[in-house]
Amino acid sequence: MDEELRSLTERLRTEAGASAVYDRLVVTEDPDALADALTEPGQPLWARELTAFKLGLAGDRRAFESLVLFLNHRDPQRCASAAYALARLDDPRTARAAAALATNELRVAYALHPIRLLTELRAPESVPALITTLERRLRPHDPYRRVALACVDGLGSLADARARPVLTEALAHPALAEAAVGALGRIPRQR
């Protein structure tokens, strides 16, 4: 069993309590049965998360919309699980959705996992979305330093020269300066 799936099932076991539905969903490998459970009315949140995660790992794109909703959830564990499954889903819509979530100022408190997903995907949308999000975090007294730091780290990992100006600006922010130096060091010098 995938380590992330094991962690998810342990976490959801507590939410599910002594549920026969939980026991059935954990062992079910049939994608149609999982997809039916995902869309069945009245399913608890833990059941939707479990089925979407398993479908995502299996590369079944019927999980996409549910996983994107979980990527934007207030619970960081649900966001992390959704990001993991989305990275393995191989759906061409994933980067666009993650970029929209990462750059949505109304949901910036939940942008950490979309940013990390964009970094992992290395999609064309990744660098512009991380630059946009980081530029907004460089305002005075911005409370989302973890989001800003994830952008700096992501831009360093992506090593794209378009990030040089915003990373240079991040040097002026003490909480980001060390990471920005490292990120700038990973970007190849232009000749």
From TrEMBL:
Entry superkingdom: Bacteria
Pfam families: HEAT_PBS
Record Gene3D superfamilies: Leucine-rich Repeat Variant (1.25.10.10)
SUPFAM superfamilies for this protein: ARM repeat (SSF48371)
Protein name in the entry: HEAT repeat protein
Protein species of origin: Streptomyces pseudovenezuelae
